[in-house]
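Practice problem. Given the sequence and the SMILES for pyridoxal-5'-phosphate, write out the predicted structure.
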Amino acid sequence: MNKQKQMKNRRDFIKKCGLSTAPFLLPPLAGSAKSLVANPTNTASEKTLLNFVYDGLALSPQAYLEKLHEINAAQAIEPDFYGNGGATKALEEEFAARMGKEKAIYLPSGTMANQLAISLLNGNKTKAIVPENSHVYRDEADAAQSVHGKRLIPVGKGKPFYDLKDLEAAIAYSKEQEVFRSGLGTVVIEHPIRRADNTAVPISTIKEVSDYCRANGYKLHLDGSRLHLAAAFTGVPVADYAAYFDTVYISLYKYLNAAGGAILCGEAAIINQVSHQIKIFGGTSFQTWGNTAVAMHYLHGIEERLETVVGKAKELIAALNEIKGITIEGLENGTNVYNLSLASTISLKKLANFLYQEHAILLSRANEDGLVKLTINESLLTRNVPKIVAAWKTGIKEARQ
Ligand SMILES: Cc1ncc(COP(=O)(O)O)c(C=O)c1O
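Answer key:
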């Protein structure tokens, strides 16, 4: 192929992907930074972009609209009315069945799902125990204290997750040291753990904590915003996880690719109280099918697709590790996030720019330790492994300095 034709093909490719603007390196995965950054994937079609940055496909508005069209063309989407009926009811029923719970309900956000779960499970009890590094403790604007009148007690500071010993010690401390006792109602686990690079809480720990809570009359809530991702990497089915908890929340936008929303599953006695609470807090939306129809679309077959993703990820990482100058390591109890480090002779910026411009492959920026968090998601299904490896090999050559 002559040079001019090559250039034209490249231009066509970039145009097709909507990647005409110069890319810049994205911030590290940790914290909320990745969702705050101006997102260069916004113009790229889900079919062509392979991102190692997000938990899901990061659909552009155009790709989202196309997806809704596709879903609607296959079977007309039925609207809900203030969250009742239609696609939303169908999703709630599907989730309840998949999680082995009596009921499920759509909420506008995971924050509201976590907070209402704690509030309703607690009843009149004032205390809830939460992981110190959890979203519910550190990223929900003290809603439990300021809105719901519940006091959150953090456990496991400095660790990715607390274990039964930590929990028992925290409970003993508050029992022994408090003169005017008010009850502990709920214990919360976050799994996988966002602030620890989506690492998993071992199933043995979940079981121990659950057995203890059941034996002592405490309710247990799971912030499982990324539960299917964890399940795919640990091999523990989502329903097995859910069985240890009274309520389980799952995000609709992290890997189910909806524009927003959350699902809370649990027994009918709790879930039946949620819609009134959503209204009280101003969260009732007239129509929610735009989120629930997309989430349902991606929920179907999620286990099978993620199983393929896990297999491909292993194959890919083994092959990339063969390239001189690249080291990719899994984390302890890791799920979909890996640490990528490059030899000092390789420019990450050049590599990332090359991969993005030439192959629509998106990398994160390095963190302060020089590590790039390589996040695996369903976009891995858009390419075959040898093709991805070939792109990286050329990219590394271009990026040597
Ligand atoms: C672990 C975890 N829980 C809860 C939430 C809250 O979800 P939402 O943004 O829907 O309120 C998030 C969102 O980032 C999360 O990562």
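Check your answer against the key. Residues 109-111, 114, 135, 190, 194, 223, 225, 251, 262 surround pyridoxal-5'-phosphate (CB under 6 Å).
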